[in-house]
């Protein structure tokens, strides 16, 4: 049942561009994106994400009927491109200038190469879906390829990406919120050993906490559309600062820092993570045969945006560029304040959407005889505990670049590169040529090497940051 969630979110997203009649058909529960799977477009405008539950559709007849009602494929080519861009763009773009400056200007070849690679794996996800009309989600493909174990592994990585994405969102909130409210709010309780920044983050998360108790998320799902707007706003702000902001740029970007490539590779990969939602974009298309064109167009646009933003940020701020470009922008410029507010508000709107896949799976495992009040209490209670766990981890490990890099290397490489190629080889083996088999096997090997090197590098950097913080 939960596997249909992302498909319903895609329709929710598409309803923003359809007629009023379609808008009124927005479903009542939504999920991320896998930034996030990221189960869905409304939830993930994310990198995940929107991650999906692992239980099968059809377990609840009422749910099945609702799925059929909203199951019509209505997305045009343009709508599908917008959906995919909205899924890809977001949190990852904030770190591209930092990654480029640390890896050297030639590391842009890695950025572009990963974009091409992920566009290809999006293409073969479509091929896997062509093979089985019953496959609707990323987990379905995993099950088709490797049985129930494939579904379990896919679901596990999807939920890991959701969790780490929420931690990264909360760290970003913690980093940007003091700049938005700097000089206005000073929150400090003498009996709590928390800084003003930490107290502001706690209050912001507590403000967002009640949204986890909502059963009907359609009233806030439209906010996910702000993901694209926020990303374009940040890009426009950096461009405006480069031209009119009075920042003296012309910082020389090193050609290559090979020793830092494993660490930044996770940042680059996370920026292209969104494959868990691609099956839902495919099934929502009126003409699925154009899915490959949608993938190529979307990745080309996103790669161009990332590359331009990376060079502008690195050129403007050089070695001083922050892991989030918004933290480097001149604070007194109005455009900067708008970009900061957008960066702060986005995480607060993501919590309920990102939690939806957990909530849906949880509810499906509760006895049917249980009343709706008890279900709501359990759903909201579990969600609150998980969000407080995310908050605690974000406050304990407030190192955005390392957590994001670790997420990209540990989880996103598998979801975006390794798994699609493995699924494709298993499902389409009989019709693949030897060069095609060798090519996909090579991508799997490359993905594994990238994942191991990146995970080791980012985890070591995270440990060093923690040790330095404790030594002071």
TrEMBL record:
Subcellular location: Membrane
One cellular component (GO) term of this entry: vacuolar membrane
Principal location: membrane
InterPro entries assigned: AA_transpt_TM
GO MF terms, alphabetically ordered: L-amino acid transmembrane transporter activity
Keywords of this entry: Amino-acid transport, Membrane, Transmembrane, Transmembrane helix, Transport
Pfam families cross-referenced by the UniProt entry: Aa_trans
Signal sequence bounds: none
Record membrane topology: Multi-pass membrane protein
Domain Amino acid transporter transmembrane: start-end pairs: 74-457
Entry superkingdom: Eukaryota
Transmembrane regions listed in the UniProt entry: 77-96, 108-129, 150-171, 191-213, 220-243, 263-282, 294-318, 338-360, 381-400, 406-425, 437-463
Protein name in the entry: Amino acid transporter transmembrane domain-containing protein
Organism for this UniProt entry: Zingiber officinale
